[in-house]
Amino acid sequence: MLCDIPPEIVSEIASHLPYRDIVTLRQVFTHEDLRNATDAHVVWLNLAKQYVTENPHSHFSNIQSISSLTTDQIRERFEKRLLVDHLWQSPGKVYPTMKRLKKPSPRMITVGIAPGGRWLFAGTDYCSLYYWDLESDDPEPVHLVPFDDDVDNTPGEGYTITAIDFLVEHGDPLSGFIIAFIGRDFHREHKESGEWLYIWDVVPQDASGTLKAKRLRTLPLPYHGSTSRFSFNDHLVARTMTKRLDVYWWRDCTETRLVRCTLVLETDPIITSVYVIGSDKLLVYTRHHDQHKAQLYALEPEYSDVSETGKAVSHATEIWSFRFCSEYKGYKISRLYFDGASYRQIIAMIDGIYSLTIPASQADGVTLTKVSNFDLHQRQSDARLYGLGLNKGCCRVGTELYRFGYSNALTSGSYEHGVMFEAGIDPFLRRL
Questions:
Q1: Is 398 part of a structural domain of the chain?
Q2: CA 265, 329, 83: angle at the middle one, nearest 5?
Q3: Cβ distance 346 to 390 under 8 Å?
Q4: Which of 30, 302, 356, 366 could form an SS bridge with 261, CB 3.0 to 4.6 Å?
């Protein structure tokens, strides 16, 4: 009988098996001693050593330090590393790593990675903006302050940074970028002027990763009771309000004169996402009960004084819309891509994956094309999307991790591949 085999023999056999076979054994074995034998220290130690040998570029750990870890520690690190491999498999791309960052003293409110992947930014209480150089072996938080700083350029101590976004103007993000963030003052007596939009030009100073910032704009915003969503490009800034969106042609704005328009939404939807497109268009995603809607608007500028920022005037024309019902609450959209001729975005719905294309020069030529039959409807009870890109994504369904891909042309170019994980790895999946 299989249960008569000594556990140490089972452990020795299992220590020479690949991870997938060990998972299968744990599912097949009903006897507790046999299951425990497949979870022995020697089993996970050999798996980890084999992984390090095959992946010398990985930051998993070195072989000497692995041996001193407990069984649970080895298993946790190995399964997490294995998960990262499946999520990030992409030839020619930078291999993902893990680093422990020192926190700044103010409480962090929002974080974002600048284009290029080298600098991580965090907005904090007291409206301080910190960054870390992720190429450093031991990244330290650095307080970023404009070099032309004066009393009007840097937010006061009563402010909190609630949102961050980035813009690359010159093609290479490592040579410089623009950062925009919203600062909110919780201590002002007049809440109508309690938020400001800060736009800074950020340039690396040398190979050490030190950044230098210069103020471009500081714009007053109407107070908004909840956290704002916003999007900006080299022409526009769009920021959500209750039942409306305020859009600013920020390069033409000053601290006493705003070039803006306000888009008023007829119903009372929740604005889930907003994207500025070119110099005169806005893509808005909303949710009202179970109905989700995507709408593309053409904008017209409206000049108004700072004292009139609360005025709600619609100067936008809807040129395309799409309504869809999503019982699957975890539906997802990718970031907006621009290929030089069209703006593209991927939308995951319950019946498949769709590609939205918005021509830059022909606003009425918007198309929505199904590019994958990956069916969330059949798996929605225990499915969760983790990533969605221009040509691939990943989704957890129960204890399986699916990687799926697609092209912007036909569903025949799509594929999907499922990988089985034990339930013990689920906490890592949930944190992605």
A1: yes
A2: 130
A3: yes
A4: 302
